[in-house]
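for the recovery benchmark. C-alpha cells below, seq after
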C-alpha cells in the first residue's frame, strides 16, 4: 500500500500532517488529533458542524444509479482525457465529489485522487467502490472551502457540478497546477425540461469562473442519451428541477416511456500562475 497522500493530507484542527496508525489518521501536531477511518476507508475531516450538507439519501441513490449505468460516461472520459493532457501523472482532488463516480474513474485511469464532499453518504459510497477495486483514491468528508490539504500540495483539481472555492483551490494547488471545472451548458437536459415545463428556458452561463487564474481551455461537450423510465426518474431526481416541478409536470414525466435527451456540459481548464 503506497501512502501517496502523506505530507499532503493535514489535520483540520491544527494543520499538522496526517499519518495512518491502524484504523485511524493521527496528526503530527503537539495535541496528536486523531480521526478514525470508517470501515469503508473514508475519514471525517470536516470542520465541526459542517458535515451532512447535501446528504439526501434519495438524491444520492438516484445519482449513483444514473451515473453507474454509464449515461454520463462520455463526460467522465472527457474529464479524464483533459486531466491527462493538462496534468499528467499528478495528484488530483475531486472537490465536491458526490458519490465518487468521477473520482473513481480518474483513479482507475491511474491518477491518485482525493475525493472530498460534505455528504457522508456520498463519500461512503465512493470509498466503498474504491476499496473493492483497490483504486488509489482517498475519501474524506470535507468542505471545498476548507480542504484538509497542505499549501501547494496537489497538481490538479476537478470541480464537477460543484461549488468553486477559488481562494482555497489556489492555496492547495502547486504553482502551475490546474483546475478543471464543469457544469450544465445552455441546453443541458432541455428535452427533460420540455416534458416538465410549458416554456423551458436555457440554462444561464455560470458566473463563478476563477478571476485569479489563467484560462487554458474551454469547450462544450454534447452527447445524446436514450433513457428508459427508471433512468428518466433517476435523472430527474438528481436535478434541481425535482423540487421545482408541479404535480402535473411530475405526472407527465412519469408517463414518458422513452426520452431522447441531450447532455451539454461546459468545461473549463484554468491554471495557477
Ligand atoms: C450536484 S452534486 C455533484 C457531485 C459530483 N461532482 C457529480 O457530478 O456527480 C454537488 C456536490 O457538492 C457537494 N457540496 C456542496 N457544497 C459543498 C462544500 N462546501 N464542500 C464540499 N462539498 C460540497 C454536495 O454535497 C454534492 O455532493
Ligand atoms: Zn492536529
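predicted aa per position
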Amino acid at each position: 500500500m503506497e501512502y501517496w497522500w502523506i505530507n499532503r493530507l493535514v489535520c483540520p484542527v491544527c494543520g499538522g500532517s496526517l499519518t495512518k496508525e491502524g484504523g485511524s489518521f493521527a496528526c503530527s501536531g503537539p495535541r496528536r488529533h486523531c480521526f478514525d477511518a470508517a470501515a469503508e476507508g473514508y475519514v471525517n475531516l470536516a470542520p465541526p458542524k459542517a458535515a451532512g450538507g447535501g446528504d439526501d439519501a434519495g438524491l444520492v441513490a438516484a445519482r449513483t444509479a444514473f451515473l453507474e449505468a454509464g449515461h454520463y460516461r462520455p463526460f467522465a472520459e472527457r474529464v479524464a482525457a483533459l486531466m491527462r493532457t493538462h496534468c499528467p501523472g499528478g495528484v488530483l482532488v475531486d472537490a465536491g465529489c458526490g458519490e465518487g463516480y468521477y473520482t473513481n474513474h480518474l483513479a482507475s485511469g491511474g491518477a491518485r485522487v482525493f475525493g472530498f464532499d460534505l455528504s457522508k453518504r456520498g463519500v461512503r459510497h465512493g470509498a466503498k467502490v474504491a476499496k473493492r477495486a483497490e483504486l488509489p483514491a482517498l475519501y474524506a468528508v470535507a468542505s471545498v472551502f476548507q480542504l484538509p490539504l497542505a499549501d501547494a500540495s496537489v497538481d490538479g483539481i476537478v470541480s464537477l457540478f460543484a461549488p468553486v472555492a477559488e481562494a482555497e483551490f489556489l492555496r492547495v494547488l502547486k504553482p502551475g497546477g490546474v483546475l478543471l471545472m464543469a457544469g450544465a451548458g445552455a441546453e443541458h437536459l432541455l428535452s427533460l425540461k420540455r416534458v416538465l415545463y410549458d416554456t423551458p428556458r436555457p440554462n444561464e452561463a455560470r458566473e463563478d469562473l476563477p478571476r485569479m487564474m489563467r484560462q487554458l481551455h474551454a469547450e462544450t461537450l454534447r452527447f445524446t442519451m436514450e433513457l428508459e423510465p427508471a433512468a428518466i426518474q433517476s435523472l430527474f431526481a438528481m436535478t434541481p428541477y425535482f423540487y421545482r416541478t408541479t404535480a402535473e409536470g411530475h405526472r407527465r414525466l412519469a408517463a414518458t416511456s422513452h426520452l431522447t435527451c441531450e447532455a451539454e456540459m461546459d468545461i473549463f481548464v484554468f491554471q495557477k500562475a
